[in-house]
Fold this protein.
Amino acid sequence: MALPPILVLGIFIGLPIGLAFFLSIGYTGGLNEVISIIGQDVRGRDGKLFTLQAYKDVIADPRFAGDLKTTLIVSFVATILVLIFSIGVGLLQRLRGGKLSSILTGLSLTPLFIPVVISSWALYTFYGSAGLYRTIFNSFGLDIPQITSTMLAVIIGSIWTSLPFAILMVTSGFQSVPNALIEAAQDAGASLITIIRTVMLPLALIPIIIVATFTSIGVLGSFTIPYFLGPNQPTMFGVEITNFFTAYNRPQQSVVMAFIVFAAASGIAISYIWANFRSAKESGRV
Amino acid sequence: MANDVQPLNLHTKSMGVKAILVAFSIFMMLLIVGPLIWLALHAFVVEWLYPSYKPTGWTLEWFRKVFEVPTLVSAIRYSLIISPIVVIVSAVICLPAAYASARYNYWGRRTFLIMMFASNAFPKIGLFATIATLYYFLNLMGTMVGVIIVQVLGTIIFMTWIPAAAFAAVPKSLEEAARDAGASKFRVFRTITLRMAMPGILVAMVMSFIYSFDEAQGTYLVGAPQIYTMPTAMYAIVETYPIQVTAVFSILLTIPSVLLIGLARKHIIGGQLAEGFQIK
């Protein structure tokens, strides 16, 4: 009974990753034949493995260094800020409660239900040249530049889309810290900061790791946000991979970039799997 | 249930701390809801010129204009056909697995779990690029089947984990009691297990529908330019149509999510979703 989803994942995720890897190192026969004929600049010959020429092409491309830098900076900064915001909201809700914090938590979940295309576009109009953001500053007599088409806008957009899941996870992590533990620490004279640092954060560590890894993987692999909000060049790999695949018809180079992103994310991916597996184990699901 | 935990109600007398809390909350609200309201308002305006706080006038004209754009009408049709199919296919594939993983400790449980997490641990766009490579061979590029498969892949995590948690929450003693009273295995499953797990299954279906309805990256990569669903049509129209048309279309695209979430709100925010993902 458990077989169908495993088969589907195997055929449409496992197999393609394998095939694409072989394509990236120059295997153009077998199941890769069609794409090798259709695509431009495909390196490597039928049946013969191993050429790193496609990787060399991509790295030698003048766009590569800028794209890599942009992707890494955006992912890193967005993840840090998402962590700060979600921990802030989570603590507020856990320690203080009240109407304000429940409204805040409720509202923070809104983006979960808004298609990412819409949110990107909404952010674009909000921060764009005729957006409310500039209108507000204008009424104070400040004529500031628009922030769309900059890295800052991509970071704001990434935070916007990642926040709901982060808040959901962190909040439930803090919920599982027993009141008794916090009160015991209070009775022993610990300050609020000490309690947060030594009791609450360590006990909610696993959900926090899940949030950090999930957010950074999500941002690394995002397309819509940088497509709408980012500059044309340099851009994030998500946009570049899509451009290479469709607009430039260079699938092999596109796949090579995908593997570079996979490699960059592999450490995070392993921590993500580990943290999820542990949390599943703790809750007795395995 | 973790959500029953009462907050500590730590209150502070310091006005400074209070001011910071209020400022933080207002900042978060503006950050989150501001752009949505801003875009939604544009659906009803004649024109809105920078730097005015007020549009030149209000109108409902744009709601009619949207349906005069053939690309958008066909996108609406594609979305309404594809998303229900995705939910059904995903349910057929995943629900038995969800039940099995909740009830039997079968060999692949760990492998299965790790595979699920692993498929989430790869940056999405890279996965879509590799899938498209296979699609060229299978001749699925630009086809409806291709789009459906790409979307089903994303729903598997919802369709297995949320129902699995729901199935696991059905007390075994209840099933056994029904069996002792003489009910057949199938009847026990239908009238007890399935019925009690139904909220979880419905939440999974709602989440899958919304995922499919909103999925843009993969659909765009394997579907365009032959197949545009509502979200991928947005890529095409934002540059060519006035902002009011895109605002109306955004509202149309958000309606199903908001409606469904409204219906299933209690379960989603309260627990089923979080439960399926992590807490128990």
